[in-house]
Amino acid sequence: MSDAIVLNKVRIAFPHIKEPQTAKESGRIMYNAVFIVAPDDAGYTQFMQKVGEIALAKWKEKTPDVMNIINTDATKRCYADGNTKINQTTFKVYDGYAGNVVISANNKNAPQLFDANGKQVDPNNTMTYKEEAGKIYRGCYVNVVLKPWVQQNVHGVGIRCDLVAIQFAADGESFGGSAEPDLSGVFGAVAVPAAPVAAPAGLPAFMLS
Length: 209
Hints:
It is a single chain. With 209 residues, the chain is α+β, with helices and mostly antiparallel strands. The chain has a single domain (5-179), classed as CATH 2.40.50.140. The protein contains three helices and seven strands, in the order ββααβββαββ. It has a seven-stranded mixed beta sheet. Strand 6 (141-153) and strand 7 form a beta hairpin. The radius of gyration is 25 Å and the shape is globular.
């Protein structure tokens, strides 16, 4: 795990932690999320340093050329300038992305999940795992462990990222109304109907007033 990087109290977007997501294009089933980080965050600095290290170890003297290919194609990397991520419905930058950087991470297996006391949740205890994972919503803050890795295969080259572990850290303003809205006061009291009066013997019920 020497390549793993810890990011503390960063915001999360598009979380699929409770249940994995099936990708439309590839059909792959993955747990995934996007993490929103300030560009001067110490954890992000360490993350990008690690990216440079693993790229150099893989491509050696070809590293500048390969990284130029990766950095000019957003589909080949897990990190991006948040200002470039546009909602195709509103045509605006996604909530929380402006002025920040974003890292996309995934895992075919459920990531390690930790509760508020720092205790790992047993992934085999499905009910408890889903209950804890359900606390993580779009816009909240999390602590997360990420592991960048280099891709070089039939699909090309790239820098990808594994989602290793995650912990809910604090509430935040939800993106897109993902958290339950406060509906207190929407409904008034429900009137309880009076018990029906029994009709005297021989008198039809519809004649009662």
